[in-house]
Amino acid sequence: xxxxxxxxxxxxxxxxxxxxxxxxxxxxxxxxxxxxxxxxxxxxxxxxxxxxxxxxxxxxxxxxxxxxxxxxxxxxxxxxxxxxxxxxxxxxxxxxxxxxxxxxxxxxxxxxxxxxxxxxxxxxxxxxxxxxxxxxxxxxxxxxxxxxxxxxxxxxxxxxxxx
Length: 163
Fold this sequence. Notes:
single chain; 163 residues; alpha+beta; globular
């Protein structure tokens, strides 16, 4: 479990030594997911970007965490991953550095999210594109399976944005 007292205490490293400071997302609805470039679910990047574009002005923040833990489906380095996502899916939402979501090197963000919204395997993430929806107060509202298409969670996003 993460040592962070709240969602807003979290940080995530991104390329060039910069950080995503989650305190900057206070008052926003946040959708966090682990991504991969060579996964059968990779086309979900398109749907995630559509959600980002449609709702960013209403307070939605979409954040991707590239992950190579499942079938080595994201072998690119951070720059290569970002380039792939932009060129193939038009991704403009922030991407953190490649991260582990399970095991001893679990990224702090996932260490915080997993116990607050368990899935099929309990806390463990079972594959790429597991998604977490966080409300404007930093509460984890829901965890979605990798098979859950971004468009199918749009109503939950709209509800969270309205609150």
